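Project channel, design review

CF: Before we commit to the Canna indica constructs, I'd like one complete example in the thread so the newer folks can see what an input/output pair looks like. Taking indole-3-glycerol-phosphate synthase.
RD: sounds good, go ahead.
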Amino acid sequence: MEGILAGTSQIVRVPMMASLAVIRSPMLFSSERAPRFPLCGARRLVPVRCSKSDEEAAIAYIRKKLMIDDFVNSIEVMEWESGMSLNDIAAKQGIRIRRSYRTEYPSEGMKNEQDSPRNILEEIIWDKEVEVAQFKRTKPLEMVKKAVESAPPVRDFIGALKESYDRTGFPALIAEVKKASPSRGVLRENFDPVEIAKTYEKHGAACLSILTDRKFFQGGFENLEAVRKAGVECPLLCKEFIIDAWQIYYARSKGADAVLLIAGVLPDLDIKYMTMICRELGMAALVEVHDEREMDRVLRIQGIQLIGINNRNLETFEVDIANTKKLLEGKRGEIVRQKGIIVVGESGLFVPEDISYVQNVGVRAVLVGESLIKQADPGKAISGLFGKDISK
Ligand SMILES: O=P(O)(O)OC[C@@H](O)[C@@H](O)c1c[nH]c2ccccc12
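CF: and here is what came back for indole-3-glycerol-phosphate synthase:
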């Protein structure tokens, strides 16, 4: 009988049954040289011969173990199987950020016009691909999964946001621990992540966002780990450019309770796959959108609980808080309310009027960095931002 395929920890399609799933252990096999689907790592299907009983065992395993309805007959996977490039599939969804699929930095002589990133976000992503490939070589997934077992217990990120909203009547604050950014340069010379985290917590932050990207934001996973180990109780968002499921496990192993998934970078199938992994790990996924098309894509995905509307365009750095209003108007706002999704207003919030502006259009949490981190005491700055002391 023809037609089963599998990889390790991957999407698996069983053509006879038109089923598709994510599977943990190598079951049957596929060609090692077949192209991989990005994060899920599944290989393009190469029909292999296997016995009827193997096929039945595979199907039974998939059915029993996995919640796969979303993946069945996924258009993306069918396109990929039929030979479309991954960048073409992403482009069809309106994604402008291309992947380079590099695992090593190109040497100077190898670079050419076509090979250059088109904007800062694309540059970050191309860089991240190499960084993750290198990380994975030294710490393979199995090793990171082992480390997850001894990670500090997960905290309820969404629960903390709801609780804070109910307690204060203001959007819950996710306060950001960020030393620098590509758009603003160094925001704070004297940067002690633990001290900043503690003062944020003391002054009423519901959750914290910790930048872990080193090259562009001067962050690091050691900051996440240090904050968690210092006894800070707020749930922690790992602020990273996630392009590979490996990074989610890694974030959890370092104590993260939530991760950021950027819809402008990740095709639908990746978002589904990654939110599924978050769910399994007990983490929250903050899915970030910037325009109507991204918002519509994310609203169509089942099980999304937290959407961040970024007022900053990560390709041009333009900031406009009216973006939050635009994306919550009309039908979109209605769907958000029907589904009980918590919307986080992100970036460019400086004064109490900004907070009430986004609150009035339906935001129940805000993500704030610059306006706090630049103050002498970032925690004390919280009451200035809200126009009121919101500490417990
Ligand atoms: O410093 P601001 O303008 O308050 O913004 C915070 C946060 O929204 C911003 O850092 C951010 C939002 N989405 C991102 C994605 C990657 C890096 C950074 C971000």
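RD: helpful, thanks. Residues 176, 178, 239, 288, 310, 346-349, 367-371 surround indole-3-glycerol phosphate (CB under 6 Å).
CF: The chain has two domains: 3-59, 146-386.
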